[in-house]
Amino acid sequence: MLQSGFAKYLRDGKGFEGTLIVAAVLYLLVFAAFPLIYTVVMSFQEVDMFTLGTLVRPFAGLQNYTDLFHRPEFAPIVWNTVIFVTLSIAFQLTIGFALALFFLQDFPGSTYVRGLFLAGWILPALVVGAVWRWIFAGDFGVLNYALQSLGLIDGQIYWLSDPAYALYSVIIANIWLGIPFNMILLSVGLAGIPGDVYEAAEMDGANVFQRFLTITLPMMGPTLGAVIALGVIFTLQQFDLVAALTQGGPANASNVAQYWSWQMSFQTYEISGGATVATMMIALVIVVAVIYVRSVQREQSF
Amino acid sequence: MNVDHPSMNQIEIEHLNKNYGSLQVLHDISLDIPIGAFVALVGPSGCGKSTLLRTIAGLETITSGTIKVAGEVVNDKAPRERDLAMVFQSYALYPHMTVEQNMSYSLRLRRRPKAEIDQRVGEAAKILGLEKLLKRRPKQLSGGQRQRVAMGRAIVRNPKVFLFDEPLSNLDAALRVQMRSEIRKLHKNLGATSVYVTHDQIEAMTMADLIVVLHDGRIEQIGKPLDLYRRPANRFVAGFIGSPAMNFVPAEITADGRAIALGAGALLKIPRAQEPGRKVLAGLRPEHLRLDGSGERLAATVDIVEGTGSMTFIEAKVGSELVNIAYAGTYETEAGAPLTLGIASEDIYLFDPETGRAL
Question: How far apart (Å, rounded) are the C-alpha atoms in residues A179 and A160?
């Protein structure tokens, strides 16, 4: 029997709702807000092995930031990150969009084949990385074998250890990993365009390309915006693939900001440096998140 | 009149069949639609009327037969090559475009000069009273306004034929009546051939020059509205056209062939002699049944009375059969009261109970 005051309070609607909210807010405060703020705070502090156990440390002002900007690897890694994000998203989006349009056509088995594409998405990125390591392997990898058999290359390409290729190898694996996600979100967007709008356009005289340009693309605008924003966020999080494939090497040739931040924090223990990189990425992600939210709002406005 | 083509028909459909896999949805449809006519395709849901319209539009392929527009076979032509405009039930407006852009879309696709586009959109907007809404998006419009934009989009094109797919079914009753007469006026002014799909026989009766009644994918009858009302070819048309619907009462032709005997013992004289002893279905329209007992008489008992002031609807029992009576005016009575109904002999319809054909 629920007789006590609190149990009664819980049992009537308000108390139950309140408890759920408090639980969720507590969770967010402890596991999301605190680490985030802690990271930002650390980027303005002198953090070393001796002050790890305390929250109160000497204030460093912007020293961590200027130090970071003056590192020789700063510019190459930022540039790598830009290439990583831009190419990943450009190809994930175009291939994903093309596949979404392809599977929108009603052909036998389309739903099953589309389902198979999702298989890649549910694999952990570390596993995907391990598989692509084999594909990219220099001496016995299947990619080199295929390219040689087709007569496209003569010798071996050392995809993961050649500084000219390492970054692009990671990008290729990341594109493969991201295509299903893009395809599914864009499929949902495409399914949201009513069929009779296309029929009306057909009656109005639009051929298939005109329908794509004047109906599909503009009506997909908000969805594309949301998918690109989510893509930027996910790509900036893509840590596992780098870890599994190249560990940022050789000589930072394939290093990207998110991996660099981890290296500094947990391998070389330059914790304030790692926190500084992370803080700058947080700022970037917030900007992208705002774009995402705006996009979603626009999506609902049609 | 179209002088380029000797035929006076805008659309000619010959022996059209349409299957979805093994399911045949249109059976041997042949239909001529004269230039400038307003033709209604009417029938209950699932009768194939929308499918027939969509085959004319080119949005559905046909299994066999031919469709001609302005004398030219269009079977293998894409919708955009047929020069027909369609108003959809859902309006199918382009949600990301303003009213103006919605209406000018087809002209912009054809790369017409800007001045011409503005002029034609302006004219259509004026006809439909949309001038103040040109910069709005469909989402900011009411149902009736969206309906007008859908019509505007069709008018701007100045097409050979307008196709309407239940354009009023998403509007409320009052607006529907208003738009009904507006579409009619529009047709009078523009003079373009119109094919109008509806499940509402009143809409068809009030708007169309010619009505095509469809049932289970077959044409039941083609005719002018009052011809369908006065001379239905079969039981289906008789029951579908007219509101409230015709009463059907089982009866038998008397020995002299000049009257019918209803189950309740009434003898009614019929307009034309029939085969004696034959079992028939007698069709009696509710509005033809008189409460003063004049003409051919039959006894009934009141079951339910519904008065609306201007009309009184009475459900009465004739023997074991229920019949509806529509009386213009107020008539005060109550359940159980006896009635003596009358009907003019020429208002009695007879149908074969097996085939449903009018006798």
Answer: 22
Q: Decide if B38 contacts B208 (C-beta within 8 A).
A: yes
CA distance A286 to chain B (A): 28
Does CATH place domain B9-239 in 3.40.50.300? yes
Taking 50 as the threshold, does the pLDDT of residue B1 lie above it?
A: no
| pLDDT for res A13 | 67
Model confidence at A283, pLDDT cuts 50, 70, 90, reads: very high
3-state secondary structure of B234: strand
CA–CA separation, B259 vs B276, rounded Å? 9
Q: How far apart are CA A200 and CA B152, in angstroms?
A: 13
B 156-195 residues with CB below 8 A of A? Answer: 157
pLDDT surpasses 90 at B198: yes
Domain ranges of chain B: 9-239, 244-351
Of A197, A202, A221, Cβ closest to residue B80: A202
Label each residue of A265-283 as H, E or C: HHCCCCHHHHHHHHHHHHH
Classify residue B359 by its DSSP letter.
-
At the topology level, CATH places domain B244-351 in OB fold (Dihydrolipoamide Acetyltransferase, E2P) (2.40.50)
> What one-letter code names the amino acid at B72?
E
Question: Does B94 contact A201 at a Cβ distance shorter than 8 Å?
Answer: yes
Q: Is the pLDDT of residue B263 over 80?
A: no
Other CB atoms within 10 Å distance of the CB of residue B163:
26
Interchain CB contact of B305 with A (< 8 Å): no
Inspect the interface and report whether the beta carbons of A200 and B86 lie closer than 8 Å. yes
Domains by residue range for chain A, with CATH: 71-299 (1.10.3720.10)
pLDDT of residue B5: 46
> What does the pLDDT look like over A220-229, one tens digit per residue?
988 898 899 8
Q: How far apart are CA B55 and CA A46, in angstroms?
A: 76
Residues B65 and B217 sit within 8 Å (Cβ to Cβ): no
Q: What is the DSSP string of A179-226?
A: HHHHHHHHHHHHHTS-HHHHHHHHHTT--HHHHIIIIIHHHHHHHHHH
pLDDT of A144 higher than 90: no
Select the residue of B92, B94, B106 nearest A205 (Cβ to Cβ).
B106
The answer to whether B179 and B207 have CB atoms below 8 angstroms apart is no
Res A92: pLDDT: 94
Among A53-57, B35-39, B272-276, the minimum mean pLDDT is found in A53-57
- Give the minimum alpha-carbon distance from B221 to chain A in angstroms, rounded to a whole number: 29
**Closest-CA residue of chain A to B159:** A204
Cβ contact, residue pair B94, A197, below 8 Å: yes
Tens digit of pLDDT for each residue in B275-310? 998 999 999 999 999 998 888 898 899 999 998 889
B contacts of A215 (beta carbons < 8 Å): 94
- Residues B167, B186: contact at Cβ < 8 Å? no
Q: Give the β-pairing of B210-215 and B218-223.
A: antiparallel
